Amino acid sequence: MGSDGIDTPEERKLCEDRAVNTRSEFPHRVSRTDHLWIEAPDGCRLAARLWRPETDEPVPVILEAVPYRKGDGTAAGDESQNAYLAGHGFACLRLDLRGSGDSDGLLADEYTEQEQEDVEFVIGWLAARPWCNGSVGMTGVSWGGFACVQAAARTPPALKAIAPLHFTDDRYADDVHYRGGCVLGLDMLQWAVSMEAYRAQPPDPDLVGDEWRARWRERLDGHEPFILPWLSHQRRDDYWRVGSACEHHERITCDVFAIGGWVDGYRDAVLRMLEHAPGRSRGLIGPWGHTSPESGKPGPEIGFLQELVRFFGSSLRGDDNGFWDEPQLIAFVQAASPPATSCKTREGHWVAEAAWPSPAVRTAVLELPDGPPRAVRGLQHCGLDAGVWCGDGGPADLPGDQRPDDGASLCWDWPAEAPAELLGHVVAELELEADRPVALAAVRLCDVAPDGASTLITREVFNLTHREGHDRVVPVVPGEPMRVRIPLMSIGYALPAGHTLRLAVSPTYWPWAWPSPEAVTLTVHGGRVELPVRTGEGAPPLPQWGPAEAAAPLESESLHAGPTGRTLTRDLATGAAELAFDWIDHRTRHKATGTVLGERNTARYRITEGDPLSPEVECATTVELERGDWAVRTEITARMTCTRDAFLVTTTLDAYDGGRRCHARRWTHEIPRDGG
């Protein structure tokens, strides 16, 4: 995604409307080459943009490799980061992946072997430039973060350091497709549709000349929906192992600075990297969503680009700046606050751990009380107050008051007699049974205030047919108790005295998890909750950060900004509910080139109470590019439903050259359900 589709690509790094100081004075003057070609060994031309400090000395290079159009899609934000880093003595290369932006070829899927080979080749190509000192680093948000860890696991000699943000090292465990072995109703189809639109755009005629239409036709003719391979591999098989750096943690010996956020869907990978990568590593987890920390939402923002300069300075050119003398993990511990679906700044405080796993985090155990088994029959509407899986901190991203979902769940409460800080993974170990062969368990930990408001702390969903491993399906034996251990998403949270911890368990959680094919009654016989309680013993001092700053983005102007957000409607007569996400609605003009970019991106999630076969997801993305008499538009729609035995997906693609539709395709897929 990963879920870059939450933000428009060009807005991922922008400083607009955020507390970021823009700088224009740096130790080095910066020159920018807007376009250059790098020819891969098979003759495919890869397009790139380059920033270099004006110096006669060779310098390290920092690479970012993503499929979001360096010439216009991410151009404004790329300038903010890369001009800043170049001003501090690093060359920066922004690469369009094969088949995206202005590069040749086809983008057949996420994170393919071909993509990884291209990135590895470019690393070697950069190291051999006369203006490079032979040391290469990588950074990037989401897809760019994936590219960092995937490249590190291939061990190219010149790659000395990576700084991945909002990424995963395990494509099955916590990417946009599955969580806990459950098909993600939320985001999987939406992200597939977004990527269909982005990769179906043409190269820029100003760069490739009259052949742009032929190159565009090649992309459109070679286009196959991403959703087909994603949904055809419902277990953790070899398909997902490709590009999962966790398969070879031992190979990641370069320096690692891993960054995540508690609102983001990818935060667990930071702690895994600190625990398993054998080289030097540090981690940073803030309150943010899917954005870079210098412009992070919710705040507080930090001077993150200064930290990148320190990290790459130490790792790529040997600066004696103390970066590696500081704590291995710095994390934001969120303060208890009333539930709210949006938040400009999150209350809380920063903490430091000298090492991770930390000896200062102990396990406290809460036992479920003895008593007769408790059962709940799943309500299909449970989960409508969940918020998004991977938010950017924007309006209505966050989960609201959990009491409606608590009421559809089995709940156990423990009053907090003393304050406690949680840092790491809460684990629920439960003895339970289900009355159907295919079932899931959604587990949430909530903070219940004295006034009754229930704030989500963390959660996870788990496919019970995967209880013996995500690489196999073992049907549930109805009525037979089973013991399952479910680590919840990592978290930093301060629970005050006088509040109550609540464990909530349900067999439904729409639209996060696609419902089981039959209504399920889940029975819990007992269990325990393991809490990662931070004692603070021996905590090292926190480093002092400067204010958030960046170089000025390329100048652009907004031509249109429509309303975005999340709405829920219910039909009280039929029991139908629709959760509507209006992600993006904007048009922007880059002033330097006159290029206009437009995007409209929506998703609709529908379900009817009492009918586990009623879920329906509809997504639509339209992207536009205009400049002078060049005007192109791509429209993608998709609809996903199910039967008892299969998922049904219909995808349409329409491309327009000027006002004329020049390409139209339609795909219909019926994909068997495999234990979910």
Please, could you describe this protein's structure?
It is a single chain. The chain has 676 residues and is of the alpha+beta class. The protein folds into 3 domains: 4-172 and 247-353, Rossmann fold; 182-233 and 555-676, no CATH class; 362-534, Galactose-binding domain-like (Jelly Rolls). Helices cover 15% and strands 39% of the residues. The chain has 11 helices and 33 strands. The strands form 5 sheets. It has a 17-stranded mixed β-sheet that branches. A hairpin with a 4-residue loop joins strand 27 (565-571) and strand 28 (576-590). The radius of gyration is 24 Å and the shape is globular.
Q: Which structural class best describes the helix and strand composition?
A: alpha+beta
> What Rg do the Cα atoms give?
24 Å
Q: Give the C-level CATH assignment of the largest domain.
A: Alpha Beta
Helical residue percent band: 10-25%
Helical run tally? 11
Shape: globular
As a percent range, the share of strand residues is 35-45%
CATH topology of the largest domain: Rossmann fold
Q: Distance N terminus to C terminus?
A: 22 Å
Report the uncertain regions: 2-18
Task: Write down how many β-strands occur, each being a DSSP E stretch of 2 or more residues.
Answer: 33
Summarize the structure.
The protein is of the alpha+beta class and 676 residues long.
Question: Main traits of this protein?
Answer:
3 domains; alpha+beta; 676 residues; Rossmann fold; Jelly Rolls; 17-stranded mixed β-sheet; disordered N terminus; globular; single chain
